[in-house]
Amino acid sequence: MESDEELLALKVHRRAVRRDASELPDHITKSLSGELPEGLELLSASVAAGLRPPSPTSATYILAVRPEFAGDTLKHKIEHLLAGKSGVVRRLVDARALRFKQVDVGGLIRSVRLDGGIVSVECEISPAGSVRVKEILELLGLDAEKLARPVKRTAVQWRSS
What we know:
This protein has about 160 residues and is an alpha+beta fold. The protein is about 15% helix and about 30% strand. It has helices spanning about 25-35, 70-80, 135-140; strands at about 1-5, 55-65, 90-95, 100-105, 110-115, 120-125, 130, 150-160. The strands form 2 sheets. Strands 1, 2, 5, 6, 7 and 8 form a 6-stranded mixed beta sheet that branches. Strands 3-4 form a two-stranded antiparallel ribbon.
């Protein structure tokens, strides 16, 4: 899976940041940038109010489907999912005992759009749970062989605590 943006929440000692600061001091952002793996870039760093990190409320995923799999079958799967007819997945809950449970994740999918072989899926994330990318693919009848490239998370909405 790929991602356009990630959030890293760090607890910084109060002495390192002025009380009224909205951004981290340059020496801290430079130090963080130097620790990132190759290919990652620190775009911004800010000081958040509150003691808890922000929590995600939704995420958007882009699935690039190979042309031969982006036809009527996929359209029907999307229609059924949006109509609430096919949101139940089998989720592994205990790997050792190979125990599964049925989970209805259909209500966590806000929207699904198909445009020229690109499927855009917006999902709700709450303290009660979220839908997994693997489950989205399962509901749409897709797997790695049917995708033109890796799944990409393009947006995450955050709620400040």
